[in-house]
């Protein structure tokens, strides 16, 4: 019995000892785990958050988020100071993270701040965020989040800041958010919210900042917002709001900023606004329907910096003493109905030393322009007085306004000479004196304004010659001198602004002489009007080089000769007026192919022969040919006589002569080109030269990510699509540093697309030549949904492909190529092929040479592109004709692919193939 008790007691003691040791060991393990990893829930939630980042940044900004560090030491993570450390702040702003917000963020139950602003998060805001009742700050602005605001955010009753601006959120603003009584800042700007502004927002008793602008909100502004007694910032502009601004809002004395522009609101400003809003610094309500006048009490708001009420229906007089607002920075009362017989308020503004913008355009202001405007702030950048009834002259002291960028007094009754001191306004971008009564000469000093891009002196009484020094204005884009008394010839120097000038209007003057041949240099000219002058001579054929022309008026001059055939090259022309000249000959048939014509006036000339009937000539509403007695034919609505057989014969005879000329010239040109290629080949064999440009090393390549290419191309949008091919699409893009590039995105779903990518990389990585398209870099990564992504980034070729020029594509507005340009292109391609075949360390054969794979830069220099089918000749045996290549599949485009690809490669067969490629190409280019 005692033995049994002894064993029983011993067993119990042993059992207790084991349990004690086990408990101690478990406690030790748990302590170690807590010490090493902290709270496992928070750690796992953070790792799940990291797993939703898909752009590879986990290897960068979040690369140290692993078990080698305590999660409280991870970048962007802050923990509380208590014994059991929990995550309180998640701050990952400005890291360019791309992905979705993980719902596991809801497991970070001690979280007080979420700051994910300025990234690329998409998808919805997880409902689980509503579980984080300790949250003080949610900042997810400037991402691409979609969906609605979760209504259960009302559970975050400690929330102070809710910032979701600059996203793609939609739906209505949840009225439940009105229960967040501690909220101080509420930013919903620039999303897609619709519906009314919830009246419940008036319950946000702590609110200071409310920004709900740039959405699709509609209805009235709730009167309840007047209960927001701590409000300092109210932004509701660019919505569809109607009704009046509630009077209760004008009683919130703490308000500093009111922005309500671009809505459909009406009403008037309360007469006591200057008494109830003493702290107001920014008041902007332009582009609405407000009426009434400017209350005199406004002058009491000494802190006012911006007062913008433009484009409404205000009226009455402008307060005389606006100058008491000494902090005024921006004053815009334009496009209203203000009246005044004297402009003393302009003189009083000389006291506003911070003034930068003054715009009183399009009112009914009268009186003489005070000379005191020259005493306005030297910080003034924008001075707009146009569209009134102001008289007087521009003071010579205008050059005191040294910061002026734009000066406009158009459509007034100003007179006198343009003061030469205007030329001292070195920062001026725009000078508009149109439709006044200025006389005298155009001051040559204007040409000293380096940054001037718009000069409009039209509609005055200016005389003399056009200053040739205008050609020195190297930034000039718009030049309007029409409706004056100018004489003399058109200075050729103006046409030296070849890549800048887009609008040139010299109409209704007394200009004489001919239209200079240099007009063809104006590559970007879209509007050209020299009508109603005394110009003579023939219309220069070079006008066909102005490929961007949409409006061309030569009406009312003394031009003679025939209509240039090159007019058919103006594929984007909409308005064409050659009426009332002395033009003769036939109407070129190519003109009927101008697909965008809206109006063509050829009336009152000496044209003869048959009028075409196709294209533009089939629409009588856009064609006028009256006053040409020798014209015949055409459609019935033109009421022209029927052509005699002689007229038709003359037309055919003319066509025959042209055909004979072409068939004579083209073979001669082809013969000349062949001689050139023989000489080039002889020179290459007699003296071999290596390429003058070294191969590109890997370290010279730009480094770009998928995200950068996604941004550069506008999300690979259709607007930026410039081409497509067998293995993908090509997009135009602008990299962050401003470089314009062409991004070739491979369609990896196509068979052999990856091999094409590798072939092009291998072909281009070690070659550089002025006639080969320049590879800037390549990208092999994952796209936004985790799929493989491969792209090549090339230097952008603004003139597109040779194929577009050969086919006269109306969508690209390309023009035709003359024979010299065609020869130069053929020579460029021959030079590039010579380099590829004989001067590369590893010879390369381009197996798909065709016009669409030849790109043209600004100077019409040709560059061979698309090396996805290229063969690298890896080895040439010295004692045989065998050649090893990187591929043995049939390659190329039908019609351009050399026959015999299935034969084994010998030097002879390869030579035959190369001749086939290039000869077929030459036929397309030259013939």
Give a written overview of the molecule.
There is one protein chain. The chain is of the alpha/beta class. Among the domains are: 513-651, Leucine-rich repeat, LRR (right-handed beta-alpha superhelix) (Alpha-Beta Horseshoe); 698-926, Orthogonal Bundle (Transferase(Phosphotransferase), domain 1), CATH 1.10.510.10. Helix content is 18%, strand content 24%. The protein contains 10 helices and 57 strands. The chain has a 24-stranded mixed beta sheet, with no helix packed on it. β1 (77-79) and β2 form a beta hairpin. It is flat and about 100 Å long.
E-strand count: 57
The secondary structure category is: alpha/beta
Name of the level-1 CATH class of the domain at 698-926:
Mainly Alpha
Q: Average pLDDT, to the nearest integer?
A: 83
List strands and helices in order, with pairings.
Blueprint: H1 2-37, H2 40-51, E1 77-79, E2 87-91, E3 98-100, E4 113-115, E5 120-123, E6 137-139, E7 144-147, E8 161-163, E9 168-172, E10 185-187, E11 192-195, E12 209-211, E13 216-220, E14 233-235, E15 240-244, E16 257-259, E17 264-267, H3 273-276, E18 282-284, E19 289-292, E20 306-308, E21 313-316, E22 330-332, E23 337-340, H4 344-348, E24 357-359, E25 364-368, E26 382-384, E27 389-391, E28 406-408, E29 415-417, E30 430-432, E31 437-440, E32 454-456, E33 461-465, E34 478-480, E35 485-488, E36 503-505, E37 510-514, E38 527-529, E39 534-538, E40 551-553, E41 558-562, E42 575-577, E43 582-585, E44 599-601, E45 606-611, E46 623-624, E47 630-633, H5 645-686, H6 706-712, E48 721-724, E49 728-734, E50 740-746, H7 753-764, E51 775-782, E52 788-795, H8 802-807, H9 819-838, E53 844-845, E54 854-856, E55 862-864, E56 871-876, E57 883-885, H10 907-926
Parallel strand pairs: 2-4, 3-5, 4-6, 5-7, 6-8, 7-9, 8-10, 9-11, 10-12, 11-13, 12-14, 13-15, 14-16, 15-17, 16-18, 17-19, 18-20, 19-21, 20-22, 21-23, 22-24, 23-25, 24-26, 25-27, 26-28, 28-30, 29-31, 30-32, 31-33, 32-34, 33-35, 34-36, 35-37, 36-38, 37-39, 38-40, 39-41, 40-42, 41-43, 42-44, ...
Antiparallel strand pairs: 1-2, 48-49, 49-50, 50-52, 51-52, 53-56, 54-55, 56-57
């Amino acid at each position: 019995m005692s033995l049994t008790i002894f064993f029983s007691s011993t067993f119990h003691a042993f059992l207790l000892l084991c349990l004690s040791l086990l408990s101690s060991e478990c406690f030790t393990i748990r302590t170690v785990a807590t010490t090493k990893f902290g709270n496992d829930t928070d750690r796992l939630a953070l790792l799940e958050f990291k797993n939703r980042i898909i752009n590879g940044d986990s290897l960068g900004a979040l690369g140290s988020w692993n078990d080698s560090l305590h999660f409280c030491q991870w970048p962007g993570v802050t923990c509380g100071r208590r014994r059991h450390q929990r995550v309180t702040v998640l701050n990952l702003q400005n890291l360019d993270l791309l992905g979705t917000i993980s719902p596991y963020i809801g497991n970070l139950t001690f979280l007080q701040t979420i700051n994910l602003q300025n990234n690329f998060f998409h998808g919805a805001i997880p409902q689980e965020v509503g579980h984080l009742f300790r949250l003080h700050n949610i900042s997810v602005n400037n991402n691409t989040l979609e969906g609605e605001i979760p209504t259960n955010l009302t559970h975050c009753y400690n929330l102070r800041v809710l910032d979701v601006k600059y996203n793609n959120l939609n739906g209505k603003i949840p009225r439940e958010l009105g229960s967040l009584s501690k909220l101080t800042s509420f930013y919903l700007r620039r999303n897609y919210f619709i519906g009314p502004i919830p009246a419940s927002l008036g319950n946000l008793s702590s609110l200071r900042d409310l920004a709900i602008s740039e959405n699709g909100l509609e209805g009235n502004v709730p009167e309840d917002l007047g209960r927001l007694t701590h409000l300092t910032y109210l932004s509701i502009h660019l919505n569809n709001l109607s009704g009046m601004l509630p009077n209760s809002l004008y009683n919130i004395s703490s308000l500093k900023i009111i922005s309500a522009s671009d809505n459909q609101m009406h009403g008037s400003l309360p007469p006591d606004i200057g008494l109830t809003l003493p702290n107001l610094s920014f008041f902007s309500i332009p582009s609405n329907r407000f009426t009434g006048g400017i209350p005199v009490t406004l002058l009491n708001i000494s802190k006012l910096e911006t007062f913008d009420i433009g484009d409404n229906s205000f009226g009455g007089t402008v307060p005389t003493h606006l100058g008491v607002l000494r902090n005024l920075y921006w004053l815009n009362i334009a496009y209203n109905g203000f009246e005044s017989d004297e402009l003393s308020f302009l003189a009083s503004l000389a006291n506003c030393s911070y003034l930068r913008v003054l715009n009183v355009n399009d009112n009914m202001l009268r009186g003489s322009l005070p000379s005191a405007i020259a005493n306005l702030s030297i910080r003034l950048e924008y001075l707009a007085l146009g569209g009134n009834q102001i008289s007087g002259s521009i003071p010579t002291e205008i050059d005191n306004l040294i910061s002026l960028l734009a000066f406009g007094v158009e459509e007034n009754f100003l007179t006198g000479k343009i003061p030469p001191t205007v030329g001292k306004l070195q920062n001026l971008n725009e000078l508009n004196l149109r439709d006044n009564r200025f006389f005298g000469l155009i001051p040559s000093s204007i040409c000293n304004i380096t940054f001037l891009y718009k000069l409009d002196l039209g509609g005055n009484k200016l005389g003399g010659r056009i200053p040739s020094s205008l050609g020195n204005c190297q930034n000039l884009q718009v030049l309007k001198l029409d409706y004056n008394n100018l004489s003399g010839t058109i200075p050729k120097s103006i046409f030296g602004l070849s890549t800048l000038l887009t609008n040139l209007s010299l109409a209704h003057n007394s200009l004489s002489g001919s239209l200079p041949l240099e007009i063809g240099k104006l590559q970007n000219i879209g509007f050209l009007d020299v009508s109603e002058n005394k110009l003579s001579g023939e219309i220069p054929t070079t006008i066909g080089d102005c490929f961007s022309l949409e409006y061309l008026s030569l009406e009312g001059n003394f031009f003679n000769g025939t209509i240039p055939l090159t007019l058919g090259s103006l594929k984007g022309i909409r308005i064409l007026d050659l009426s009332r000249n002395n033009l003769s000959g036939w109407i070129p048939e190519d003109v009927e192919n101008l697909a965008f014509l809206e109006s063509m006036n050829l009336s009152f000339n000496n044209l003869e022969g048959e009028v075409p009937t196709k294209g533009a000539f089939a629409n009588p509403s856009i064609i006028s040919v009256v006053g040409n007695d020798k014209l015949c034919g055409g459609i019935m609505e033109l009421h022209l006589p029927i052509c005699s057989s002689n007229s038709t014969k003359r037309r055919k005879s003319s066509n025959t002569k042209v055909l004979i000329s072409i068939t004579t010239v083209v073979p001669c040109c082809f013969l000349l080109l062949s001689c050139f290629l023989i000489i080039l080949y002889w020179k290459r064999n007699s003296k071999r030269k290596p390429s003058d440009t070294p191969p590109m090393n890997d370290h010279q390549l730009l480094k770009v990510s998928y995200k950068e290419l996604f941004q550069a191309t506008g999300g690979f949008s259709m607007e930026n699509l410039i081409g497509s091919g067998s293995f993908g699409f090509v997009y135009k893009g602008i990299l962050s540093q401003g470089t314009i590039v062409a991004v070739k995105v491979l369609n990896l779903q196509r068979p052999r697309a990856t091999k094409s990518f590798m072939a092009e990389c291998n072909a281009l990585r070690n070659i550089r030549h002025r006639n080969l398209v320049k590879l800037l870099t390549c990208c092999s990564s994952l796209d936004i949904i985790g799929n493989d992504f491969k792209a090549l980034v090339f230097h952008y070729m603004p003139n597109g492909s040779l194929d577009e020029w050969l086919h006269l594509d109306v969508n690209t507005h390309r023009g035709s190529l003359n024979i010299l340009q065609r020869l130069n292109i053929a020579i460029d391609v021959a030079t590039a092929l010579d380099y590829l075949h004989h001067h590369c360390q590893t010879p390369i054969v381009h197996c798909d040479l065709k016009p669409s794979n030849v790109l043209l830069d600004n100077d019409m220099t040709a560059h061979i592109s698309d090396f996805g089918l290229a063969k690298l000749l890896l080895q040439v045996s010295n004692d045989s004709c065998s050649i090893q290549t990187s591929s043995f599949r049939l390659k190329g485009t039908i019609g351009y692919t050399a026959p015999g690809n299935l034969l084994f490669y010998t030097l002879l067969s390869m030579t035959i193939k190369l001749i086939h490629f290039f000869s077929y190409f030459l036929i397309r280019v030259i013939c």
